[in-house]
Write a structure and sequence with these properties.
alpha+beta, Jelly Rolls, Arc Repressor Mutant, subunit A, 2 domains, seven-stranded antiparallel β-sheet, four-stranded antiparallel β-sheet, 10 helices, disordered N terminus, transcription, sequence-specific DNA binding
């Protein structure tokens, strides 16, 4: 493929980018066959229109199988996985709106109180699915007016039909307090984290108790959560113009290939392709 913003593996392709005229939004359009997303979470929301094949999304409540005409909805910090549900894989167009963008649209429609949260994991809505693909098309054509109009319409429709107040996640009990403290330690010492045994000793608990509490609080064990957190921080550094090799060392990966492997699994494109997609320009049509 001609542009570095696209990564091709056999029949797979993906583009992860930003359009400067749509602040607070990341865009991903892709066709995955063999690629699987490990358990991870997002700072913001996920609104994904499946356009071909079947996507299997692993959520705390179970597996969701989404096909064409479906819209997958995921709230911030909800751990999930994704993989193909059929041999030919799945294609989708995804919107990653920030918390600020969702709050702005929610305030405009005025029907929700507090922080909005989706109440459904997947809905059958061919109309919204189509509109989401049109957001991508308009952005790729540089039609800011159409892209922004369609984006706000799709988000408003999902919030009006499938959202309510996002429940506050309160920390209760000794185990939950220990899990939150462990998370803070891992964030602070991301580049050189302690072992599970060392971390438990610092918090005056046992490794098994801490592991159980952390998994219950964050939906994944500490080492999986740390890998996801490292990739998130690497994204922030890449957004700021940091070279992938420097970002890898800064977040605690041993080298750039180590970053490449985990980044590609979680984000869906390589760090280099991701960085090129932050230019805000219009990419060529996908192959």
């Amino acid at each position: 493929m001609a542009d570095g913003a696209q990564e091709s593996v056999e029949r797979e392709w993906a583009r992860h980018w930003q359009y400067a005229e749509l602040p607070g939004l990341d865009l991903l359009r892709a066709h995955y066959v063999h690629h699987t997303f490990p358990r991870h979470a997002h700072d913001g929301y996920v609104i994904a229109a499946v356009t071909g094949g079947i996507e299997e999304v692993g959520l705390p409540g179970g597996i969701v199988r989404a096909g064409p005409g479906s819209v997958v909805l995921i709230n911030p910090e909800v751990p999930h996985t994704a993989r193909a549900g059929v041999p030919q894989g799945w294609a989708y167009a995804t919107l990653y709106p920030s918390r600020e963008l969702i709050a702005e649209v929610a305030a405009e429609i005025g029907s929700l109180r507090g922080t909005p949260g989706f109440t459904a994991d997947s809905v059958t809505d061919p109309q919204t699915s189509y509109v989401i693909t049109e957001v991508h098309r308009a952005a790729e054509e540089g039609n800011a007016l159409a892209a922004d109009t369609l984006l706000r319409g799709a988000v408003a429709r999902m919030l009006t039909r499938h959202a309510g107040p996002l429940p506050a996640r309160t920390v209760r009990g000794a185990g939950a307090v220990d899990a939150a403290a462990a998370r803070a330690v891992l964030l602070e010492r991301m580049a050189r984290p302690p072992s599970l045994e060392q971390l438990a000793a610092e918090l005056e608990t046992s490794p098994f108790a801490l592991l159980r509490a952390f998994r219950a609080r964050y939906g994944m064990p500490p080492h999986t959560w740390l890998t996801d957190a490292r990739v998130r921080r690497a994204r922030t550094l890449l957004d700021a113009g940091t070279a992938p090799a420097e970002a890898a060392v800064a977040v605690g990966f041993t080298d750039q290939p180590h970053l490449n492997r985990h980044f590609t699994r979680i984000v869906g494109v390589t760090p280099g392709a991701y960085r090129r997609g932050r230019s805000g320009g219009r990419p060529p049509a996908a192959g």
